[in-house]
Amino acid sequence: MLKALNWRLQARRGFATAWAKPFQVAIDGPAASGKSTTAKMVAQRLGFQYIDTGAFYRCITYEVLSREIDPTDPRNEEQISNIAEQAHIRLQTLFAAASGVSKDQDRILHSLPTTRVFLEEQDVSSQIRTEHVSQHVSAVAAIGGVRQAVLQKVRSIGAQDDARYVDGSPDSKSSTEGLVMDGRDIGTVVLPHADLKVFLVADSRVRAERRLLELIKSGATPAQEKLDIDAVQRDLERRDELDRTRKVSPLMKAKDAMELDTSGLTIETQVDVIVQEVYRRRKSAA
Ligand SMILES: Nc1ncnc2c1ncn2[C@@H]1O[C@H](COP(=O)(O)OP(=O)(O)O)[C@@H](O)[C@H]1O
Ligand SMILES: Nc1ccn([C@@H]2O[C@H](COP(=O)(O)OP(=O)(O)O)[C@@H](O)[C@H]2O)c(=O)n1
Question: What is the model's pTM?
Answer without folding.
Answer: 0.87
